[in-house]
Design goal:
alpha/beta; 17 strands; globular
Amino acid sequence: MSSIGKAGKTGLIFFPAFDWAISPTHPEREERLLYTRDQIFEEGLMDLPAIEEYKPRLAEKKDVARAHFCVPDVESQVTEAHLIAAGSTLTLADALEKGEIRNGFALVRPPGHHSMRVVHGNRGFCNINNMAIMVEYLRTKYGHKRIAVIDTDVHHGDGTQEIFWHDQDVLCLSFHQDGHTLYPGSGFVNEMGGPQALARTLNVPLPPGTTDEGIHYVLDNLILPVLDDFKPDLILNSAGQDNHYTDPLANMRFSANGYARLNEKLAPDLCVLEGGYAVETALPYVNTGIIQAMAGLDYSHVKEPDYVPGRFVQTEGMKREIEHTVAQVQKIWDQRDELVAQALDGAGDFYRRKKRVFYDTDMINENQEEVVRLCPDCAGYMTILTSAQRGYGILNSAFCVSIPRGACSSCRDDAKEEYAEHVDDKRIGYVLMQDKDKDKFKLYNNMIRTERGY
């Protein structure tokens, strides 16, 4: 072993998923990682003592069930490629926890951050949420309580936000191009989390054309101070790279060197690749810069062939808009305890919300009714009634029950009763239950009256 020692290394996993594609010419394709790998080998990074490459592995279906209600079941929503992408993040999580590496980067596809708690199909190129699966794995296997997820993809991380909407121990902070101008049309300042977890979701929508200057202003004046306050056990980065100035699906002006500096300042424990679709002009340079920053190597030479210093300049109006947004979000964070107290005052025993979710890749419309017990003794159990349609036909319906970690006996008993009451209800296709305390997951098929677990 070199003098750097295993614990000083940066762990890397590459998984380009050769056998998975939405279509042969789709932006989310295997070349996203192949050009990066060529660049890294050309630079000789894989031969450096600071880098340790790991092999991918399959996630178990149970790992998926911790984060998702897959309808009708996990098997119908994932391919082997999805399980390997998710499993790769868990391999690096294990390596970090065992002290083999100091930090790690899972360069994998398919991506995941648009996949929500309930899964009926693919939306935003995502079936299952690699980041959320890793968060739940780290909490279950290693007992971490407070985790921060910083999403740096140009598209709002709406799936990760939705999964942890009611979780006061997971901070989800996303900066992204303003949802008025880009998919998925969400991620506004007023999206702050459920009543018991207000301000644990923070969103920073940025104007199209934001440069390195603007994104580093957000990092220095909001993200780093909030992390200092929150004091997470781990900092995780959903590392989307489509803020780059050449990305074909967005309108931002971030550079490879700007990404590397962001990573150096943020110092995430683990990164998971999300989007980024400038296959030749951005990804090889951005990923090389991030890897060098994570490994503590000099990244000052990492520049795109067409990069011209000073080429992109923010207007005074854009600077004022970014500063105003940062001030708004900082105020929300500063008032987090008062916001929770106000939301719970007179709220009653249950919080309810109805929502519609559109799966743009698979053209599915979903209707949900979510109910959360506002329990004074624990995080409260959750139920979700969901139905999905494609065209005019019903695809699937399900009743989902989630028992949180640290559930009180009252919530545990009521959740089990909810599950039992919906078994054999012919109006609902499937009944699912997550028991996160016991790490057990059940699925009942009402059509054939059978139950199985993960």
